[in-house]
């Protein structure tokens, strides 16, 4: 069954492709036995696509404007949900029986293949509203039927936050209370902002982190030089803990294979 399991990520722009590349590189470096799939939109550059093809087993072009696309008609009615629908495409990857989706702005710190022991839909709590799961890291089972139901749900209900997280939370609406096994520990989706909203917890548990999520407006690829953070992003110049992960992200991006012990 391992041959039919995959990590899946998504990028619709060249900067997000930098993120996807890092996701693939760190999964490889930590010795995953699963396949790696990058979903991309047709507008990304040839260079970005080729760099992803070096690392991923499959780079799948997902075209929202392709009339053969089952999502097309739904999308025409809800253009606001464009990237969300692109993310939902992961349910059409039926060549795999089970997958783990990782946002392009995640950094995998160790082997996390044990995530495939979990069932759909497993995810970690969102730091802003812990009865919702964060959709940056989740375990799912590709299924055309589920995909159709998700599109139908999107058309009928929309998304309360305008993105995939709102949509997925109202679809998998019993996540909060039904089955504790579907609650991934927070260390599988450690939101960068949790580092400064609950610093003592980060000091106690942060060393156990397995996946860091650079959730929010500022992504590591916006910060090529940590000495020159964007002036309107105060967390970057005050938070050494976060700096460490940004440095590690760039080390992965440039292909350093040395593990950082600190
Ligand atoms: N994404 C993308 N292009 C965009 C915005 C988002 O490809 O313009 C994908 C990418 O995989 C990204 C995910 O959708 O990681 C969710 O968006 P983001 O991570 O920016 O949201 P956040 O986690 O900050 O809420
Ligand atoms: Mn994200």
UniProtKB/TrEMBL annotation:
Gene Ontology CC terms: cytoplasm
GO function terms (MF aspect): glycogenin glucosyltransferase activity; metal ion binding
Superkingdom assignment: Eukaryota
Any GO BP: glycogen biosynthetic process
Class in the EC hierarchy, top level: transferase
E.C. number: 2.4.1.186
Catalytic activity: [1,4-alpha-D-glucosyl](n)-L-tyrosyl-[glycogenin] + UDP-alpha-D-glucose = [1,4-alpha-D-glucosyl](n+1)-L-tyrosyl-[glycogenin] + UDP + H(+); L-tyrosyl-[glycogenin] + UDP-alpha-D-glucose = alpha-D-glucosyl-L-tyrosyl-[glycogenin] + UDP + H(+)
Cellular localisation: Cytoplasm
Cofactor(s) this protein requires: Mn(2+)
Coiled-coil ranges per UniProt: none
Keywords: Cytoplasm, Glycogen biosynthesis, Glycoprotein, Manganese, Metal-binding, Transferase
Pathway where this protein functions: Glycan biosynthesis; glycogen biosynthesis
Function: Self-glucosylating initiator of glycogen synthesis. It catalyzes the formation of a short alpha (1,4)-glucosyl chain covalently attached via a glucose 1-O-tyrosyl linkage to internal tyrosine residues and these chains act as primers for the elongation reaction catalyzed by glycogen synthase. Glycogenin participates in the glycogen biosynthetic process along with glycogen synthase and glycogen branching enzyme. It catalyzes the formation of a short alpha (1,4)-glucosyl chain covalently attached via a glucose 1-O-tyrosyl linkage to internal tyrosine residues and these chains act as primers for the elongation reaction catalyzed by glycogen synthase.
Record family assignment: Belongs to the glycosyltransferase 8 family. Glycogenin subfamily.
Protein name stated in the entry: glycogenin glucosyltransferase
Phylogenetic lineage: Eukaryota, Metazoa, Chordata, Craniata, Vertebrata
Shown residues within the full chain: 2 to 263 of 435
């Amino acid at each position: 069954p391992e041959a039919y399991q995959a990590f899946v990520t998504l990028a619709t722009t060249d900067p997000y492709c930098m993120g996807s590349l890092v996701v693939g590189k760190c999964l490889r470096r930590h010795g995953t036995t699963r396949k790696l799939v990058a979903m991309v939109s047709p507008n990304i550059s040839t260079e970005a696509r080729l760099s992803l093809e070096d690392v991923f087993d499959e780079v799948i072009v997902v075209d929202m404007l392709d009339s053969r696309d089952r999502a097309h008609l739904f999308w025409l009615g809800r253009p606001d949900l464009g990237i969300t629908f692109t993310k939902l495409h992961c349910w059409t990857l039926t060549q795999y029986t089970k997958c783990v989706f990782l946002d392009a702005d995640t950094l995998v710190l160790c082997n996390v293949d044990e995530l495939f022991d979990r069932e759909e839909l497993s995810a970690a709590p969102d730091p802003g509203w812990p009865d919702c799961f964060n959709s940056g890291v989740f375990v799912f089972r590709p299924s055309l039927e589920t995909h159709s139901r998700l599109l139908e749900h999107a058309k009928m209900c929309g998304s309360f936050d305008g993105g995939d997280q709102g949509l997925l939370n109202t679809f998998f609406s019993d996540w909060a209370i039904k089955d504790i096994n579907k609650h991934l520990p927070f260390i599988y989706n450690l939101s960068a902002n949790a580092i400064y909203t609950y610093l003592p917890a980060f000091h106690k548990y942060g060393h156990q982190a397995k996946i860091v999520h650079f959730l929010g407006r500022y992504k590591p690829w916006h910060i090529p030089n940590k000495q020159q953070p964007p002036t309107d992003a105060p967390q970057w110049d005050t938070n050494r803990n976060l700096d460490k992960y940004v440095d590690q992200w760039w080390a992965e991006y440039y292909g350093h294979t040395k593990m950082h012990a600190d």
